[in-house]
Give the backbone structure.
Amino acid sequence: LAAVQNTCDFSTNTGHLYFFNQLFARADPLAVAADCLSNCLNANLLTFEMAPVFLLMEKRLLQHMASFLGWYTHFDPNSQDNDTPQEFSLCGDRRAPSPAEQPTAASTTDESAPNLLPPPADTSSKLSEASTDASQSPRLDAQNHPPSTRCSAGTGERERCGHVGDVSREVVPSVLVDRLRRSDRKLSAPFETFDGLLNPGGAISNVMALNVARHHIVPEVKVKGVYGTPPLVIFTSEQGHESIEKATALLGLGVENVVHVPVLPSTNAMDPQALAHAVQQAADAGKRPFFVNCTAATTVAGAFDPFEAIRDVCDEWGMWMHVDGAVGASFLLPQEEYYKKLCRGMDRADSVSWNLHKLLGVPLQCSALLTRHPGLLSRTHSTVACPNLFSHIDTPLCDLDSCCSTFQYGRRADAFKAWCLWKKLGDQGMANRIRLVYTHTMELAELIRTFPKKFSCPGRGVNLPTEVEVEESVPTGMPSDINQDAFHLVWEPVSCNCCFWWVPYDLRKPFAQHGWQHPLLHEHLIHVAPAMKRQMLTEGSIMVDYHTLAGRPFFWRLPLVNPDICRDDIFNVLRIINRIGTSCFPPGSYAVSVSEADLSIEGGPMWQTTINDGDSSSCSRSSARRVASFPGPEMAHAEEIRESTAALPSICTF
């Protein structure tokens, strides 16, 4: 017990309100409980017979995710009225049952059997009859099981052997299997317009995307290997994720064949003209361009690549377009024009990776790979050994197996935690999480501009703050302007990340005059963030990561993913960072001489081992849970978002 307590005490508290180190935050409690339950059931999503409910649940979840890309429509193709979308639910049809479908007295004993598929309209009598037959079957009663169908021997022998497992349940849920076999509906319907699978992380999804793209364009590589084929070239943004390089090394494509395309300085997004030029150069060198990796919300800047322009280049050269949407694919959920503009053209991609554990509150890990090419996953990963390994390959339910769609042979039931959370919040509630991320990011950018003052927001619909609500106090013995011009935005945020510098007091005037590009100023600024991070981890009050891009000195990247944070908390974060920075670099750390012709900086950082706690309230959460925001033309009000989430129904069908 002590070891378990120590493990908890010495682990990073990722659920803390001031944990900003990664692009995820506190997981939703319901999703955590669902994850625990799926672990207790210990199901393997390799075949349908091993995890029937979870595999159906995964396909329902992938269906719904694909619908936001336009690759799947929640319409019943057999319905006479296609103007009304068919509501899909794991718990069955949401419409009221007809008199013929009302349960009989015998069928009421089977209350625990879930109706996993909506019954066809013309088979109600068959289903009612099947339900009656199933409920009267002796297999439903654990006490009437023949010995050959029990988990083990009788209860007395289990007690003598120390077994505590439950034998009141069947090994195989026979009612579920019977209902699925009697249904006239094709079980592989989710794969008719797209293909998809849940994977253990976005990097694995990117590896699989590169593998299926290679099979789609050069299918002979699967059997003959890469020998004798021209080098396959991969193009990715210079701010794209490093998992693409790792994927090329893993698949034997060669890291040298990865071309990093420059970005537009104004947007940090891939330059389509530079991409077209790089593709032409690769073709002239005798290589074969075949894969372009776009990014929705880059890891640092949060930028979205221009998907439509990149799609045009891919069509010209016959290349596969993949969108690494580990973070940014969740911006498909809100339907406001700003979010649609960010994601425009993503539906034209050949494949999209999407991490539900990033911004949506699902526990690690839950990553999806979606492709608009149905059946491609199984064509890529199936082998001639499959019939030998799985003797049930010709059973009526084999279309639901995932063993031939991935190179994994052990798959967790990751869909369950995401499914439960989505059912709880619904589409609107999940979209509100993204709206809050964007709203809080804009609030942070505004507070950086106005620091050390925090302006109040008098009410909704007011575009400009009018009154100073709080102003950071000046520590004793410090200059009166110690808090002025401490923070500077690296660039304007566009999605979920806000990047900024904290500049030491002695360097603020030269920074304002020369900017970070001055070599001497750059030389000193690169030491600021690492020194502050060291003290930050020592006191444990906050956790923020720092990065560098395009030669810039280290800056802070702060993603506001936690939906519980408010405007007071965001301002308090800036106060803590400012206090830590002033403690590491107090006035007098540098001797600066600024002239019109030159800049001279002498001295260096004063590495202090003591911690100046300052105001004790600076490290604690604000006692007042006041929710306010700085509304802009493209930003919803945080209070409105929270109220709309609270008013949502508890159940969502999809």
Summary: The longest strand covers residues 288-295. The CA atoms of residues 240 and 298 lie 6 Å apart.
